[in-house]
Amino acid sequence: MKTAHDIILKPIITEDSMERLQNGKYTFKVAKDANKIEIAKAVEDIFDVKVANVNTMTVKGKEKRMGRYTGFRPDWKKAIVTLEGDKTIEFFDGMF
C-alpha cells in the first residue's frame, strides 16, 4: 500500500505556480500511477487541510542529446490542488 509521501513526491516552485498560490491552488509532482482521489487524501494527510478540487496532467519528458544520440527524459505527472476555505499550506507561506 502506498503512503501519502509515496504519492506526493515534491512541490513544484515556478513563477506560474507562485501566481496560483494567491487563488489557493498548489502544484505538486505526484506518482505517475496516482489518481485524483489518492492525491486529495495524501495532501489532506500531509498538510492537514481540506481539498476542494484536484486537476492532473501528464507532462511529456524533454528531448535530450548526448553527442549525436538523442533520448528523452521520463514523463511525469503534475497535480494542481485547490483548497477549501482560507486555510493555507505553511510550506508555501513565505514564498509569495
Shape: globular
Radius of gyration: 15 Å
Average pLDDT, all residues = 93
User: How many separate domains?
Assistant: 1
Give me the CATH superfamily: RRM (RNA recognition motif) domain
Helix content: 10-25%
Question: What string, H for helix and E for strand, traces the elements in order?
Answer: HEHEHEEEE
Uncertain spans, ≥5 residues at pLDDT below 50?
none
- Counting DSSP H or I runs of 4 or more residues, the number of helices is 3
Whole-Å distance between the termini? 35 Å
Query: What is the third-level CATH name, the topology?
Result: Alpha-Beta Plaits
Proportion of beta-strand residues: 35-45%
Reading off the top of the CATH hierarchy, the class is best stated as: Alpha Beta
Quickly give the structural class.
alpha+beta
Main sheet strand line-up: 1-2-6-3
Beta strands, count: 6
State the CATH architecture: 2-Layer Sandwich
Query: Quick one: biggest sheet?
Result: 4 strands, antiparallel
